[in-house]
Write a structure and sequence with these properties.
Layout lengths: L8 E5 L9 E5 H6 L5 E6 L2 H18 L1
Antiparallel strand pairs: 1-2, 1-3
């Protein structure tokens, strides 16, 4: 089974002035459509992994604030 761009999720870090949440995820095609400057942190091959990572990163960002 090969992965297609719609099956890969990109973890995104939004600029501070975008407001919370600081991190989110999107499919590769949707990430390419985002108009704001975002930092692509890493990719995940499952929605569960992407969701878990985003949840942890946002919790860490809140704790650090």
């Amino acid at each position: 089974m090969s992965l297609d761009a719609r099956d890969v999720f990109v973890i995104l870090k939004w600029p501070p002035d975008a407001g919370p949440p600081r991190y989110s995820f999107a499919t590769m095609p949707h990430a390419a459509e985002i108009q704001m400057p975002v930092e692509r942190i890493q990719t995940c091959s499952s929605i569960e992994a992407a969701s878990s990572l985003v949840e942890r990163l946002n919790a860490e960002a809140i704790a650090a604030a």
